[in-house]
Amino acid sequence: MAQTTGPVLSTTAPDQAHFYAKLDGPRSFRLLKFKEGVFIGKDPVALSFMLKQHDIDDCPPYLAVSYVLWGRPYCELDANRDADEPIVFDWYIKINGGNFLILGNIWSALTHARLHGNGKYIWLDVCCINQSNLAEREAQVLLMGSVYENGAEVVGFLRPLHPDLDSFYWLLMDVI
């Protein structure tokens, strides 16, 4: 299962700055490169990546993913959610061999990309931008138009994160 050894509760995104090397220039960005291997359901090893830096004007073909999650980083969409209520980060993927904490909808988007994408590279802002570095976030937001424009494929992932639908979703994915 792709859950951590115990949930991490936080009202903000976890500091995962140690995953990121400084970007080389204003047109630099990062892509997740799928590590080769067999995909087996919710096994975190199935979603293992290397984080690679590229120039937006000279990079391999990649899938750019937009997903349903607005507001401060990682904030679940719930009109009834109090801003001070802890968010549970109980999913992770492997990036450069380490556990990178994410929410379930990010896991679902990456799983969908792994199952249905045609390439080895993927761009997903929450993983490819150092969310702990405000200057980098601001610079990367200015580059996002080019990131989406240059993607070999661009997909909007709109699957809602709802516990009652998760089992049905995975059953459906097994059928497809």
UniProtKB/TrEMBL annotation:
All residue ranges annotated as the Heterokaryon incompatibility domain in the record: 62-159
Residues spanning the membrane: none
Matches recorded under Pfam families: HET (PF06985)
InterPro entries for this protein: HET, HetReg/Transcr_Mod
Protein name as it appears in the record: Heterokaryon incompatibility domain-containing protein
